[in-house]
């Protein structure tokens, strides 16, 4: 079973790998044209990854603060992980600054929701009317693809929910059958107990009669022996 320390280490490695991916994307940005759909997709990918990185860093901070209470850890090891997290935070801030998002800004800025006019101007710079229309169509296609993926996810979730519901119905029927069998077995056990009680009473009565008969026979034999002794003496 994985410990909290193992979970923190795994999360930190994933965050470090994500920061390296963002750094690689920033390096590739210089080879892209100043504007256009490809540049926009590249920028969106970087913003999305930085948003994910921020979430991972927040989770790492939360795990690290709870770590001493969940398992024993030396102060040296705890300070080492705090330093590792601080360095990764500094690297993330540097990456965000390179994208003109110092200290990550806020989540709306990171998601690139179009509230910054500068971004719109940068994207559409150098595009004619046909280019702008093409960009709009490209964005619409991406949105349609996102909706299609969402639909697939919803349908998959629906199928899983139906399967779980069927499984619950099956378990309910099995429990009902088991309860019915328990009731039948209990009734049979009560009948057997009643029969045993009757048999026990009959056995006790028969034993009493047998004892009485043996007593009479013994008395008769004793009388006969006494009579014989008196007669021959």
From TrEMBL:
Membrane topology: Single-pass type IV membrane protein
Pfam family, one: SNARE
Primary residence: Golgi
UniProt subcellular location: Golgi apparatus, trans-Golgi network membrane; Prevacuolar compartment membrane
GO cellular component, one term: endosome membrane
Native source organism of the sequence: Zingiber officinale (Ginger)
T-SNARE coiled-coil homology domain segment(s): 137-199
Keyword Cell cycle set for record: no
Role: Vesicle trafficking protein that functions in the secretory pathway.
Bilayer-crossing regions: 209-230
PANTHER family linked: SYNTAXIN, SYNTAXIN-51-RELATED
Keyword Nucleotidyltransferase annotated: no
Protein name, per record: t-SNARE coiled-coil homology domain-containing protein
